[in-house]
Amino acid sequence: MLDIRYIRDNTKLVQENTKNKGYDIDIDVLIKLDAKRRDIQKKSDELRERRNIISAQMKNGKPNPELIAEGKSLKTELVEKENQFKKIDDEYSLLLESIPNIIASDVPLGDENNNVEIKKFGDQKQGAIDHLDFAIRRDWVDFERGAKVAGAKFYFLKGDLALLENAIYQFALNHIVKKGFTFMTVPHMVSSRVMSGAGFAPRTSDQSDEYAIEGEDLSLIATAEIPLTGYHADEIIDEDDLPLLYAGYSPCYRKEAGTYGKFTRGLFRVHQFNKLEMYAFSLPEKSIEVHEKLLGIEEEIWQAIGISYHVVNIAAGDLGAPAAKKYDIEYWSPVDNMYRELTSCSNCTDYQTRNLNIRVRRKSGEVQILHSLNGTVVSLARSLVAVLENFQQKDGTLLVPEVLRPYLNGRELL
After folding, report:
1. What CA–CA distance (Å, rounded) separates 313 from 23?
2. Which residue segment(s) compose the domain that 46 sits in?
3. Which end of the chain has a smaller Cβ tally under 10 Å, C or N?
């Protein structure tokens, strides 16, 4: 969440930023709730102080009827104030948590049509068979039996395609570990505090992508970013230990609400997929540098595999709540003759860490909120789509990218 003191001092800027990100929130309502909340808190503190004075006076002498009567009156008034405070505080907290992070100064305004290309790699191949048609011909994927078992958009990977997924994962994991990231497996469920603390709040109530566990304060994770955000909740990290670099592997579970039918065929958008995620906790003054490092690692992986792509600076209206800035790598699709999303990396500044009370102790002894960042190493379902589209051969075989062959017993063709 944002610091309420920052919102008080920059109300117009926060209102404009919220609108630019596509959120319909009236910041003036929050400011009024904040003022009422503080006023009630002040009056409650005054009542408690007076009650303590009366208690002290009554201990030092005979009970005074007037003091007894005043004490009872104070108790009643204090209960009323506390009830008022809770009601307003609940409304205030809910509204404060729904306000998105402030965008960086170099983020373009507008929706996804205003994303800005900043670099490009590789040639734009033309003509290929759709990945789903190609995989079905080889009996590599089964959506029909996936639907029989779990419903639409669930699937089985089979044989060589399942082995290819594992090869991509093993290659990416080795690459990221060499970069100094600590590999972690993570819980597949998190509490509501961690879910909301990571900033996974929908723009509207009908856009939630997460699966909730009925009767439990738990939801299935949509990405390893969420439990990794909560890993250091309520902790203070020494400055000398930063940055902390983690790589989390997990299944990801998503309803994919609000996608409006965009690129929904086959493996591109599904309810469950595996992903390896980078996560970093950084000093505030270093987070821009760390963000560029995450992007560079993503590029290294896809250049090594041999997939053409471009990098885009995501426009404000296409950013999620936590991100101040996000880069997407979009691969070139020879099927659609356009770029399609493959990975992303975001600088969330102090938005998530403030939510979950994650701080840094400076060498001076000062304690501050630190910054958090995340980035996709490989999202494996989409990674398979990119490889199937770009490495298929005219004879119906699939050429294995050279860097993946050691993880497939040296096989060159599948």
Report:
1. 20
2. 4-98
3. C
